[in-house]
Design brief:
about 400 residues; mainly alpha; three-stranded antiparallel β-sheet; two-stranded antiparallel ribbon
């Protein structure tokens, strides 16, 4: 199945241009003729073609595929709907070459809507390299907007939600890129020194029979282990990685891992507050759209990947269903800061929960940015200092016995 660009005429002077999905060029021409059009040109969109014969390349492509950025499309679609454009026309206008591989997905989405599906259903079915294009929260909030009749407003909020999430990921990636490069470079240099440089320098000193300083003996022991039993270290590292993957795949192991992440100094605070930003943003948007709190908090659970926080929200949903107060249910989970519990308690009592959630989301969004900057500023010098100490200790351990021999002479 491919995407074809066409030029056709309905008998008038103006030439019609557009795109459609078909298995072959002949099918594309036949579909246009069935619509009473005179076909002038049909070309396959090169960006939409997928090689079927290269299974390995397809698998590699799927593995390397990241969820595309849909915020621009959602924002444009929301604007078109707000000015009164019909859905199909708005979806067609949102299609343009700058969207790259996403353009084919959006074309299929438009055709699915044209056959009678709702926009939320079409978004839920949209796939790129076998993976969902739109996350669960986006699909659920779109469904809410369609049901409430304010789809344009909700799509604007969804676009803002997607932009904030992508900005946080980009900010975190940029913050960790430099420390990761420093760490990998330092480890590479240390392994090279311990396996190639240190053995040659210390061999002659060992044969001389002179006693070696304690730091030199420690470095030599580590060097001998890496040279003689490096394969043991490699196997142990591989086994640890495999065990970590297995633990992460099991629900119980993933739950414990997520709880451990929340307890990490600094990192846990960032994860928790970023989750609060997403939850508050989703809840305020849904409540403002007229969604009941019980359904809203069920949708908000999908906005966080942390299973500990998701279970806490699930318990909160159960408490609301049973008629209990919201604040005590959140407080009993022990997973949210006191300020969050207070906001939910006061918001429920005053009937202004959505406004207070907006303020909470803005406040915690600023705090997350500040904490990320602080962690970056702290990690970089600490890593540099640790690596400098390690490399310096190796260099000092090799030079010290040579200096002692020189002094003895």
């Amino acid at each position: 199945m491919g995407i074809y660009s066409y030029q056709a005429s309905d008998g008038a002077a103006e030439v019609m241009r557009g795109t459609l999905i078909a298995d072959t060029p002949r099918e594309a021409r036949n579909r246009l003729r069935d619509q009473g059009l005179s076909v002038l040109e049909v070309e396959e969109d090169a960006t939409s073609s997928t090689p079927q014969g290269s299974t390995l390349l397809n698998l590699l492509g799927k593995a390397a595929c990241r969820r595309p950025d849909t915020s621009g499309f959602l924002r444009e679609l929301a604007t078109l709907l707000e000015v009164g454009a019909p859905m199909l026309e708005a979806l067609g206008t949102a299609l343009h070459p700058q969207r790259g591989g996403l353009n084919g997905v959006l074309l299929r989405l438009r055709e699915r809507v044209a056959t009678g599906a709702s926009l939320a259903e079409a978004m839920g079915e949209a796939r790129l390299h076998g993976r969902p294009v739109f996350d669960e929260v986006t699909v659920a909030m779109t469904q809410v907007g369609e049901d409430a009749g304010n789809l344009g407003d909700v799509l604007n909020e969804v676009a803002l939600y997607a932009e904030r999430g992508r900005q946080f990921k980009n900010r975190l990636t940029s913050a960790l890129a430099y420390p990761a490069v420093v760490l990998l470079t330092g480890l590479g240099v240390s392994v090279f020194l311990m396996t190639y440089v240190v053995p040659g320098l210390l061999e002659s000193l060992t044969e001389s029979g002179r006693p070696l300083p304690w730091i030199t003996r420690v470095v030599k022991g580590g060097s001998d282990f890496l040279v003689g039993y490096g394969w043991v270290f490699a196997i142990a590292s591989g086994a640890s990685i495999a065990a970590g993957v297995l633990v992460h795949r099991s629900p119980r192991g993933r739950y414990k891992l997520h709880g451990l992440l929340l307890r990490l100094p600094g990192v846990g605070d960032v994860i928790r507050k970023q989750a609060v930003v997403r939850i508050s943003f989703v809840l305020s948007t849904l409540i403002r759209s007229g969604v009941g709190f019980e359904r809203a908090i069920g949708i908000a659970q999908r906005s966080t990947q942390n299973l500990v926080l998701r279970r806490a929200l699930k318990n909160c949903e159960t408490a609301v269903h049973e008629g209990r107060d919201l604040g005590p249910a959140l407080e009993s989970s022990g997973s949210f800061p006191g300020a969050v519990v207070q906001v939910f308690t006061l918001g429920q009592a005053s009937g202004r929960l959505e406004d207070m959630l907006d303020r909470l989301a803005d406040s915690y969004h600023r705090q997350v940015n500040t904490l990320t900057d602080r962690l970056t500023a702290l990690i970089e010098p600490v890593l540099i200092l640790v690596l400098a100490v390690v490399v310096g200790a190796i260099a000092f351990a090799t030079i010290l016995p040579i200096l002692e021999i020189g002094n003895a002479l």
